[in-house]
Specification:
This protein is α+β, with helices and mostly antiparallel strands and 222 residues long. The protein contains five helices and eight strands. It has helices at 2-31, 48-58, 82-93, 119-128, 193-200; strands at 63-68, 71-77, 104-106, 110-113, 147-150, 167-170, 185-191, 217-220. The chain is globular. The N and C termini lie far apart (61 Å).
Amino acid sequence: MTLVACKNNTKDTVEINTDQKNNTIEKEKKTSKPRYNLNTVVLSNENVVDFLTWYGELNPETKIEIETEFGNIEVELEKKTPLHRANFIYLTKKNYFNSTFFHRVVKNFVVQGGNSDESLTKKDRKRIGNYLIPPEFISGLKHDYGALAAARSWDDNPDKLSNPYEFYFVQNTKGEHHLDGEHTIFGKITKGFEVLDQIAAQKTDKGEYPLFNIKMKINVIK
C-alpha cells in the first residue's frame, strides 16, 4: 500500500509540474518581445528568409485588392510560395505599393508594376531594405492568363532570385509558358481581368512606359 501511494503521489507531482511548465511557457510567449521590430527592421539578403518565414506565420492573409482608375483587380496569393506571399503582404501593409505605378505595359504579354519615378518610392526601398528573394518554383503553377509573378534581373543572376518590389501579370490569354521556371509565380487574378486588359491597352513610348502614370493602391482583403 505504501508503494502504491508513493507511485500515485509521484505521478500527481509530475502532472502538476508539467502543467505549471506549460503555463509558464504560454506566459512567456505572450509577454516576450517579437523577434523583429517592424518599425526598425531593415531587410537584407542575410535576414530575408528568416524574416519572411516569421512574418508569414503571423500574417497568413492570401487575398489582396489592387485599386486603379480603370477598376479593381482581386488577387489570390499562393500559399505554396510562402516567402513571396509574405513579402507581398508585408510590402502592402507597409503601403509601399501606394506610391508606385504600373510602369511597364506590353499588350498581349505582361503588365508590370511596383516601381515609379517618385522620390518616395526610392525612399521606401531604402527604408525597407535592399534584398532579393530565393525562387519558389512550384510544379503546377504556370504563366497562365492572369498569373502573378515576381520580376527579376536576367543579368548576373544564375539563381533566378526575385526582385521583391516589382511584379507582373500575364496579360496574354494564351499564357507565357516560356517563362515557367524562370520567374516565381505566387498568385493569380480572381476578379478584374477586364481591368488588366484595359491597362494593357494604354499607349506607351518606345521603352514600354505608359504615356500617363497608372497609379495603384493595394489593400489586404483577408
